[in-house]
Amino acid sequence: LTYGSTLAELTSLEQLLSTIVTDSMAHASEITISDEVVEKLWQVYSHHKDIPNPQRRGAIIILGMLAKAKPDIMAQKIKTILKIGLGKHGKADLALARYSCIALQRIAGEKKKQKGVIAQDTVRLPMDHPIFIKLRQLIDLPTKSKN
Predict the structure, then answer these.
(1) Higher pLDDT, residue 140 or 30
(2) Could you tell me which residues come within 8 angstroms of residue 9 by beta carbon, excluding any fewer than 6 positions away?
(3) Sequence-separated (6 or more) residues with CB below 8 Å from residue 41
(4) How would residue 31 be classed by pLDDT, with cut points 50, 70 and 90?
């Protein structure tokens, strides 16, 4: 679903998957995305060999989309994201690193911003958190890639 998709197509897919997850959590809908599917996506993303880059990217894109409605999907696998997406695989495939960073953003969940109101329930990580260390290592990597 993600191979060669435009930004508009990815945005539409994200909204569709988010709606499915939200509806299934709220109304016990017939259409659901099972935990087995989520686990299989994590296996594809974190497999150390024999997984083509587009397939690994597709897995984290879909996981990030699902996490828009259910942030726990990401929160439970931070170490995996740091090891794969911001580690060796991410350094070799900066598009994978970019989508991994987008997925990490989902940990905070979807918060509606209100003008003039400061969000009180946001979590601020310490600057020595492994996420920031890995991000810095990735940003310091010399490259000519547009990603």
Answers:
(1) 140
(2) none
(3) 59, 62, 63
(4) low
Three-state secondary structure string covering the chain: CCCCCCHHHHHHHHHHHHHHHHHHHHHCCCCCCCHHHHHHHHHHHHCCCCCCHHHHHHHHHHHHHHHHHCCHHHHCCHHHHHHHCCCHHHHHCHHHHHHHHHHHHHHHCCCCCCCCCCCCCCCCCCCCCHHHHHHHHHHCCCCCCCC
Whole-angstrom Cα distance, residue 92 to residue 94?
6
Question: pLDDT tens-digit profile of 70-112?
Answer: 888 888 899 999 999 999 899 999 999 999 999 998 887 666 5
